[in-house]
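FAQ
Q: What does a multi-component entry look like?
A: The components come first, one per line:
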Amino acid sequence: MKRKSSVTQKQVAKEAGVSQTAVSLIFNGDTSIRINDDTRKHVLDIADKMGYVPQAAARSLVQGHSNNLALVLLRPHQQVFNDPYIPNIITGFSEVARKGGFRIVVEQIDDASRLSVIRTMLKGGEVAGIVLSGSISSHQEITQLAEEGHPIVALSHSLNLNTTLHNIDIDHVDGVQQISKHLINIGYERIACISYAPAHDEQVQLRIATFQKVLEEHGRRLEPTLIRYGNYDPDSGYTAMKELLAQKQLPEAVYCMNDLMAMGAMAAIRDAGLNIPSDIAIVGYDGMRFAAFTEPPLTTIHAPEVEQGRLAAQTLIDLLHSTSSKSLSAGKTKALTEKVHYLKPKLVIRQSCGWKHKTNTEATTQNEVISIESLSSSQPLLTK
Amino acid sequence: MKRKSSVTQKQVAKEAGVSQTAVSLIFNGDTSIRINDDTRKHVLDIADKMGYVPQAAARSLVQGHSNNLALVLLRPHQQVFNDPYIPNIITGFSEVARKGGFRIVVEQIDDASRLSVIRTMLKGGEVAGIVLSGSISSHQEITQLAEEGHPIVALSHSLNLNTTLHNIDIDHVDGVQQISKHLINIGYERIACISYAPAHDEQVQLRIATFQKVLEEHGRRLEPTLIRYGNYDPDSGYTAMKELLAQKQLPEAVYCMNDLMAMGAMAAIRDAGLNIPSDIAIVGYDGMRFAAFTEPPLTTIHAPEVEQGRLAAQTLIDLLHSTSSKSLSAGKTKALTEKVHYLKPKLVIRQSCGWKHKTNTEATTQNEVISIESLSSSQPLLTK
DNA sequence: ACGTATTACTAATACGTATTAGCTGACTGG
DNA sequence: CCAGTCAGCTAATACGTATTAGTAATACGT
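Then the predicted structure of the entire assembly, as tokens:
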């Protein structure tokens, strides 16, 4: 069980003819205690020559905290990486974490019983803080950990505003409103919806409720027969659309809750010999990279997911610094005054949703596309 | 800089009226030293009541190794998560790592100068071992670390067989052979290729060389004008295809090195008013989930990426156990006898590649699809 | 009754670092 | 010339655990 012996500060000290304390001081660049430049250089040389690397475990032990941040994914294993959502989050998260000198630990939990892993990681000092993604069924324990002072940031968990958790949220209510109003604005009356399972998920319910509200505000009705449930994947979109097509009265437009299911739905419509959008219009949700290249190009909502990952990491790091120095050092805590952050998604109009037949002031023609910049994102949106 | 005080073994010991040693023994379930069942139960009760969680840092320090495994991605930041390759690897990797009681640290390196991070992580004991993905330009240092006894497993790095690194590889030579032979078998003469940049990448060169070789073995020639370079993204596929379409003589078929670029290429062909596959056939590579739902459904190669992640993790863990116990405990090291593992990719035939006009014994009709099982993968392939 | 096992523990130490308190000698101001 | 400062270090200790060596008490066989 022994591991290879690594070079220690003591060995470096001996070789350099100084004390271990000196080596430690030099490596941590402490300014309050001064070290002669010659000595410093000499020690650094020797350390380099000996291949000295500080032992993370010893540092963590004595400093009382790790320099790992965790990304905990409370989602069924299958959902995590099929969809580009989590990869996008990781992209933003790791970018900021790295700049702050942190490593990231990715832990996926599909079973609610394994929720105690979070406690283990935080209380065991494996990580300094965590970002939490996914629907937290019993957040009793989570909230308690947060109240004990463990830095926790949740993603898209705004439904429980009474929580003590910090939360970085994409405003999907706004997104659903944007895209459903767009469909209404074009003039569709009979609009269907391909949603996610499980139907009881808070986020899913919120989205459906918002969709329904917008319809009703504009004199439409969400027919229960026009709601179908998929499971993130294109094939479930295909199946759901098949069911819609089997009904006697077809929908004029279909709102799909993600782009992958929209792709499946479009395939089903094509297979039925119908045209998109003149027979049935389709919109997606997520703004995946390929959405500009489907047949026809897919109208969708671009959610700033990378930015969400970034902001989550930054909030976590701020939180870390604010709890460590009991007296909140001025300024730093700007992001912490508000517990909930909202990021606005953006509508990306392409051909799959059709367009107004009657001219109007802000006509959207077939070839016109709204060009958007994703906020300094490393994932620039493509508009064909 | 202080962190909240956590419950220690000493505190539990005091509360339970035993020594710290006893608590340690009980928690590690050491069988060589026996503890009375009553005492054990009593201590565990108290520990639970006090919310004791072992400190990871202290354990690592005294045991000399961490229980983290790293996944190091030597890739430009942008490439990592746009493509589902890495997410698939993570899926398989984390699945096995978790079962072995390890956490996973994901570290992405885009700058070769930051390659020393690997040294820092391994020698600093942050992680017990690493899985390496991406083209290692200077693997001088990596090999040295491996020779020093640090467990390292590389992914798809088989070009340097002289390496001391263990390697889990997908046999892309086989994959390229399968798909290019399929095109030739259908009867196409003039076949183009949309490749990756950078062109000097070893894997890219190998794939192009293989493609070329297959063509030449079958009396064709890879016209230099028919090679284009994209960058993983659909829009680069679109652009590359536009260029091919601008030439006076069109290709009959195009081999795209991934599915996303194939999507872009298909959009370009449609935009030019041409038909797929009757005017130009398209094949992709990767077997992404949506490939069955493009217009037309995309013929592609399914690479067992999740399985690659799993096998990498398993090999790393085996390696860990074999180096820790100097006397290689029998059996366990089965996977370690061979340094290089190959996983075979599978051809998935759909409509985008067209089909033989003349009947033949093993005719592939428009609607027939080769159904495949991915090897116990949690990502079952979809065939429409 | 006596030596030996066995059970059930405890005391002491090591792991590698950060940190606190202190020590030495040189320089300074008056 | 002496008190005081300060630069440049060192000794000692703490962090929380695993592990080794050892001890006290009981059981056992003869």
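Q: Is there any commentary attached?
A: Sometimes. For this entry: Chain A is about 40% helix and 15% strand.
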